[in-house]
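User: Predict the structure for this protein chain, please.
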Amino acid sequence: MSKIKVTIWNEFVHEQEQNSLGDTVRQFYPNGIHNYLKEALQADDLEIRAVSLDMPEQGLPDELINDTDVLLWWGHCAHARVEDALVEKLARRVHEGMGLIVLHSGHYSKIFKRLMGTTCSLHWREVGEKERLWKVARRHPISEGVPETFTLPHTEMYGEGFDIPDDGKIIFMSWYEGGNVFRSGVTFLRGNGKIFYFAPGHETYPIYHDANVQKVISNAIRWAAPEFYRDPNFVEQIPVPPETVYTDNPLANLDTSALHKTM
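Assistant: Here is the predicted structure, written as structure tokens:
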């Protein structure tokens, strides 16, 4: 059985900052969030690569994009530095069938907004309050083996309204100590690709050390793994209808195949 090829992308900015913020992040993720997740999510059926924005071709050359089954995306302060051409390559790859898991502040990344078609804006507050997650889709593969509810003792609050499309399926809802609620785990389908947005994961708290959070992400990788790849612009002409056509149409024998090829 072939392994699922997973690429974890991280802007890897906060971890390298020489200030109090950088010091705090390095306490929990000394080699970067991407490398921490690479080690934490290791499994026999996964082949995991960790890359970052400061690498050549922003960490995602064409060869790697085309060799990735599921892409994890973590970004926060450097969304604008991601090249538009790269975003279009990733969007096409998702439409072909690559899975995409967008983590925490990646909700505002170019690739997520590109695929959602909305601002993906939300309310937020950072006072280190408690977050309680509730499993809404109890039989979904992403929530399998996860408790019906679990808490994170300290986190950044993300609150409604969350400007995402209405076609998302809610897997987890969060309640925060300050009273806000949030759709903290949502799936989408775009073309042949599966997308999962998961909110927990602020850089100054050890949220990715939490076993339940790791379980959710692990499940999401396997759920998002492509069943097949297909050209997103694939259009198949069906010249012979499955039912007999009795309508007298003078244009019935008009050859329109050349027209469709130019669309």
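Residues 15 and 31 are 8 Å apart (CA to CA).
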